[in-house]
Specification:
Helix content: 25-40%
Strand order of the largest sheet: 10-9-8-11-12-13-14
CATH topology of the largest domain: Rossmann fold
CATH class of the largest domain: Alpha Beta
Protein name: ribose-phosphate diphosphokinase
Family: Belongs to the ribose-phosphate pyrophosphokinase family.
Order of helices and strands: EHEEEHEHEEHEHEEEHEHEEH
Number of helices: 8
Structural class: alpha/beta
Radius of gyration: 20 Å
Distance between the termini: 7 Å
Strand content: 25-35%
Shape: globular
GO molecular function, one term: ATP binding
Number of domains: 2
GO cellular component, one term: cytoplasm
Domain Phosphoribosyltransferase: 151-266
Length: 310
Amino acid sequence: MKLFSGTSNPSLTKKVSDLLKIPLSKTEVKNFDNSEVRVRILDDVTDQACVIIQTTSNPTNSSLMELFFYCDGLKRGEAKKIIGVIPYFGYARQNIQHREGEAVSVNVVIRFLETVGFDEICAFDIHDEGTGGIFSIPFHNLSALPSLATSVKDYLTKRKVHKENIVVASPDQGGVERARIFGEAFFGNDNFSLVVVEKKRDLENIHKSHTVDLHGEVLGKTVILVDDIVTSGGTLLNAASLCLKKGAKSVLAVIVHPDFSKKAPKKIQQSALQAFFTTDTINLDPSKKFDKLKVVSIAPLIAGELKELK
């Protein structure tokens, strides 16, 4: 197996390389002043199974084009099989036509991936699991939620917070299944309290939403808010504020993908959240790190999956 790293998250790929004891294959990526990118494969990949790890977070379009060019270069090098590992799948939230005239952008991205020549795609906690059904090539939707559950459990155990005083919450109606998956991993069964925050989104203004109500009991409890992505932090922090208003003792956040806007880290750090657990699906610039941030690596999950795919 040949392992390649895109430029979006090289530290994650290095961790996977170390775990698998497979050296990173040599490439050359050139970014031009006119914003174009050129990718060149420097290793011999003839009849080899090749894996390219590239998260498609901000700058999403540039990351995607680089990924497409990697695949084309490998295809031209006569690779036997090309597997794309996309820890954070850009455009996954644009999976529905909310208003007339809108593109369903994730469908377009999937068609590009298939057409350029990928044989398989792996991603983590894609926004809507139904998106996997759009692929005509094998698609593996892995989950970081069990790993996050283990870290949160260790954190709360050290603080002597007992399970009977903990509830799991979804910050909106669409994330109930994610919260349930986390809860089952955290408690080891399906016998736990699940709270849902009702939210309304402003379709005319991006990153704008407001909470309407809370369904479930949080009085005196430690609340674990679970979601797949945070960008502005509005949905999450509104949900946290509502839980505290309803009498929650404390609130923690568990988010798979830290797709932070510029102002989000400061807002989260200054909020009433006790801690913010996330993963390294997205490589965070030092300016976007903060004291409440706790990062769990998905490298062992990728390494395990690639061993199976070999």
